[in-house]
Amino acid sequence: MPGQERYEHVLRFWFGDGDANVRVSSEVSSRWWKKSDAFDQEIRQQFLAEHEAIHKGQNELWLREPRGRLAYVIVLDQFSRNMFRGTAKMFASDARALAAALSGIEAGDHTKLGPDERAFLYMPLMHSESLAMQNKCVELFGLDHDEGAASSVAFAVQHRDIIARFGRFPHRNEVLVRVSTPEEEAFLRQPGSSF
């Protein structure tokens, strides 16, 4: 499958076939946020080869176009979290996803994408354990003013506040074999402390 067909396949799988300028249906978006072994397996079966190709430098042409770069980011940032759930490997592509996202933002890709697409271009910033990236993420989400924007900003602020407080995401400590501080342990006992 040629490069554009391959990255469009990633985007169709993730966003569906609807108008990119309209928020996706709740049926589509619910798959993004709930844990599902079946969905994780579906992503692994369809996109593990793309993930490996990106890590071998075989999909660099995707980075030349906003939609290609978005697909590149989704494979590294979102699909990694599904394919490798519960292992340190789910975070292993974060730096590469962040670099691609920042390059896209600098190039103005976010101005050429629909609201849900923009959100996933920004997601590597939200997943970063850098306070500067978290602040940039809140700023970027704050630029949107459509119906889903307020909840996106609130979610970005929630992530930023955790990094501001702890300097990292405590819910990652176990899988990354990091020792939690007593304050982090107390935080992790609270409902809704992990994503």
Protein architecture, described:
The protein has 195 residues and is mainly alpha-helical. The chain has one domain (3-188): Serine Threonine Protein Phosphatase 5, Tetratricopeptide repeat (Alpha Horseshoe). Helices cover 62% and strands 0% of the residues. It contains nine helices and no strands. It has helices spanning 3-15, 26-33, 37-55, 66-83, 94-106, 115-127, 131-141, 149-166, 182-188. Helix 1 (3-15) crosses helix 4, helix 3 crosses helix 4 and helix 6 packs parallel to helix 8. The chain is globular and about 50 Å long. The termini are far apart.
List its traits.
single chain, 195 residues, mainly alpha, Serine Threonine Protein Phosphatase 5, Tetratricopeptide repeat
Q: Low-confidence runs (pLDDT<50, min 5 residues)?
A: none
The CA-CA distance between the termini, in Å, is: 35 Å
Number of helices: 9
Q: What is the H level of CATH, i.e. the homologous superfamily? A: Tetratricopeptide repeat domain
Brief description of this entry?
This protein has 195 residues and is mainly alpha-helical. The protein contains nine helices and no strands.
Topology of helices and strands:
Layout: H1 3-15, H2 26-33, H3 37-55, H4 66-83, H5 94-106, H6 115-127, H7 131-141, H8 149-166, H9 182-188
Helix pairs in contact: 1-4, 3-4, 4-5, 4-6, 5-6, 6-7, 6-8, 7-8
